[in-house]
Amino acid sequence: METNIKFVGGMAYDKFTGASETGGLGTTVAFLGGTAGTGGAGPYGSNRDVNLYFSGRWSDPIASDIATLNDINLATFADTIVLQLAYDEALAVALFGSESAARLGSFSSLANQWTLAGAGNTGGSPLFAGDGAYDPAADFVLGHYGVDTASNTVWAVVNHEGMFAVVPEPCTFVLLGLGMLALVGKSLRARLN
User: Fold this and answer.
1) Are 171 and 103 in contact (CB under 8 A)?
2) Strand partners for 52
3) Which contacts (CB < 8 Å, 24+ apart) does range 57-62 have?
4) Which contiguous run of DSSP H or E holds residue 4?
5) Contacts of 186 (CB under 8 A, 6+ apart)
6) 102-108 and 113-116: which strand pairing?
């Protein structure tokens, strides 16, 4: 499913009602905050023409469908936006050990792996805000992110486009990798004995 959303310069991104993948895991994407930029030519500046489309999961340990966002009028998304994705609770627990380990990730083509969504920002640093819903009254800035286990959603303050999905927190990636190495080592020892 592909959705094209048009934002006039100065319009709040939270006016977007959200979109859901009808197949796959039924992931829902919502914009919770941010304002479309007004830079550019014309009476409203450079309006934002945002494409959102879904694709199925890869073999990576992710607990949602993949949502891709891009602004077809700009080389980069450029605006600061609060992005939220829903995840499959049972899958998050099975893959990550706990749904509280779920984070909003983005795919880094340079590293060829999923990273925290805030790591792809221009400026700001990823900072975990804790478990709970995004609060527009809080003083969240670029790079802040959180998980809301009550509503099975993750959110992050980002300013880039790309592919987004629900991934485990970075230390869980390390633990998953160490667990796989331990299993391989155990299998090799059993074969040698």
Assistant:
1) no
2) 3, 69
3) 57/24, 57/25, 57/165, 60/114, 60/165, 60/167, 61/95, 61/96, 61/167, 61/168, 61/173, 61/176, 62/95, 62/105, 62/114, 62/165, 62/166, 62/167
4) strand 2-7
5) none
6) antiparallel
Q: pLDDT of the chain along its 193 residues, tens only?
A: 678 888 888 889 999 988 999 888 999 999 999 988 776 655 555 678 888 999 888 778 899 999 999 876 654 567 899 999 999 999 999 999 999 999 999 999 888 999 999 999 999 899 999 999 999 999 889 999 999 999 999 999 999 999 999 999 985 444 344 344 444 445 555 566 6
65's tokens = 């469908």
User: 142 near 64, Cβ under 8 Å?
Assistant: no
Contact status, residue 136 vs residue 155, Cβ threshold 8 Å: no
pTM confidence score: 0.84
Taking the CA atoms of residue 169, residue 175, residue 176 and residue 177 in that order, the dihedral angle to the nearest 10 degrees is 120
Between CA 49 and CA 6 the distance in angstroms is: 5
Identify the residue whose tokens are 């990798």. 177
| Side-chain-side CA neighbours of residue 166 (13 Å) | 33
First-last CA distance in the chain:
52
